[in-house]
């Protein structure tokens, strides 16, 4: 069964957690004992209704403040497919959590409070969804019950959002607008008849129809080597396999491959997965590949098809989201991790910082602070084998690590 990955976002109190709770409730995904605990918790809060947002606000601080702080992953399923939802924070100070939560999403779900309309965080979250090249964007205009289910109000928000779409750098997103009331379940998984002027799909109906044909298989084949397997047994004394996960594309038995950075070539002899022999390995599959020839390859190297060799980059231009309290300045050195390959790197220049509310680029900045997004130039001590993020997202992202305290300080997307 297919798994659809969704990232929710929106400003504070737009109703993300309630919407997710409503989806779980309407798809009968909440166990009876948890429903009873929800009823009890809602009564303790003095509410005369069941607060479905408590399902996702797992931290004590989240429940006390009524906000989302950490990224919560929620799992549910329908007869059609399985779902993984990343419920990301709405506060500006947790923007870095939104970036990491949305990094693997196929659908970005942005909530807008019908009373407030588009706010600063709407711009920020749309900018990130666009930067990450998330193919499907669902804009849920929530709390329609608080504006008397006004069609005019909904149309005005759609018109305002269209201005952002017109200014976006990535034009390939499919965008769907849905008026909803997550508190009462209108247009989430079913219709109550209160928004009769809307004839489109409910949120769940749309998600059930989203098609994805494993786009990673359409990208160039990339196989970062995680380890070399050499069993110390008499029976398999001459076995030498390369273990890892195919991050994009696919490999077939018999394909001619080249190992980077050595440049040595061979052909794939076998593809093994546990006790099975495969003829092809697809994107996101973990396998062991053996070659017809003994070539020099180890952890951090990469196998690629000879017809699809990526660039070996020692100088990188990339968009990054800064995730550390300590500011970034020109000349600082870090560890750059691209897949399993980790190399020393220096940030040579901060080219500009982007104001995500208007897409303006501020080129006079000499430092980046927490949650800033901008473009930098990086030089690495050894090459990385990367693609531009827009061409192959699975092989175009990296993180920067503080080598002294092992903290992840930035996530980057290669130009």
Automatic annotation (TrEMBL):
Q: Which key words are in the record? A: ATP-binding, GTP-binding, Nucleotide-binding, Nucleotidyltransferase, Transferase
Q: Is Transferase found in the keyword set?
A: yes
Please give the Gene Ontology molecular function terms for this protein.
Answer: ATP binding; GTP binding; GTPase activity; sulfate adenylyltransferase (ATP) activity
Q: Ranges for the Tr-type G domain?
A: 1-218
Top-level EC class, please? transferase
User: Which PROSITE patterns does the record cross-reference, listed alphabetically?
Assistant: G_TR_1 (PS00301), G_TR_2 (PS51722)
Q: Which Pfam families match?
A: GTP-eEF1A_C, GTP_EFTU
Q: Name one GO biological process term.
A: sulfur compound metabolic process
Q: What is its EC number?
A: 2.7.7.4
Superkingdom assignment = Bacteria
InterPro entries documented for this protein: CysN_GTP-bd, CysN_II, CysN_NoDQ_III, G_TR_CS, GTP-eEF1A_C, P-loop_NTPase, SO4_adenylTrfase_lsu, T_Tr_GTP-bd_dom
Which NCBIfam families does this chain map to?
Answer: CysN (TIGR02034)
The identity of this protein, by name, is sulfate adenylyltransferase
């Amino acid at each position: 069964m297919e798994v659809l990955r969704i990232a929710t976002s929106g400003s504070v109190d737009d109703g993300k957690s309630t919407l997710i709770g409503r989806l779980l409730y309407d798809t009968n995904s909440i166990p009876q004992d948890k429903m009873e605990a929800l009823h009890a918790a809602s009564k303790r809060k003095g509410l005369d209704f069941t607060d479905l947002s408590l399902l996702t606000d797992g931290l004590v601080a989240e429940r006390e403040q009524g906000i989302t702080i950490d990224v919560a992953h929620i799992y549910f399923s329908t007869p059609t497919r399985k779902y993984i939802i990343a419920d990301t924070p709405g506060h500006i100070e947790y923007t870095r959590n939104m970036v990491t939560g949305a990094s693997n999403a196929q659908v970005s779900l942005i909530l807008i409070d019908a009373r407030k309309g588009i706010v600063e965080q709407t711009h920020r979250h749309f900018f990130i969804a666009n930067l990450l090249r998330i193919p499907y964007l669902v804009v849920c205009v929530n709390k329609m019950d608080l504006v008397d289910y006004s069609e005019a109000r909904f149309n005005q928000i759609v018109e305002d959002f269209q201005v952002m779409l017109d200014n976006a750098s990535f034009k390939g997103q499919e965008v769907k607008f849905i008026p909803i009331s997550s508190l009462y379940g209108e247009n989430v998984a079913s219709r109550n008849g209160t928004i009769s002027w809307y004839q489109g799909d409910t949120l769940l109906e749309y998600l059930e129809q989203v098609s994805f044909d494993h786009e990673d298989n359409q990208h160039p084949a990339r196989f970062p080597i995680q380890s070399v397997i050499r069993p110390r047994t008499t029976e398999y004394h001459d076995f030498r396999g390369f273990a890892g996960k195919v991050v994009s594309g696919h490999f077939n038995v018999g394909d001619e491959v080249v190992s980077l950075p050595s440049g040595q070539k061979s052909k794939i002899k076998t593809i093994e997965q546990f006790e099975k022999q495969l003829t092809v390995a697809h994107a996101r599959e973990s396998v062991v590949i053996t070659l017809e020839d003994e070539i020099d390859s180890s952890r951090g190297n990469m196998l690629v098809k000879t017809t699809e060799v990526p660039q070996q980059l020692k100088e990188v231009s990339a968009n990054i989201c800064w995730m550390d309290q300590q500011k970034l300045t020109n000349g600082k050195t870090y560890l750059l991790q691209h897949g399993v390959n980790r190399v020393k790197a220096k940030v040579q220049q901060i080219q500009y910082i982007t104001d995500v509310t208007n897409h303006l680029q501020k080129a006079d900045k000499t430092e980046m602070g927490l949650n800033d997004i901008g473009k930098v130039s990086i030089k690495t001590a050894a090459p990385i084998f990367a693609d531009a993020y827009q061409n192959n997202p699975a092989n175009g992202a990296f993180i920067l690590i503080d080598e002294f305290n092992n903290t992840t300080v930035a996530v980057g997307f290669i130009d």
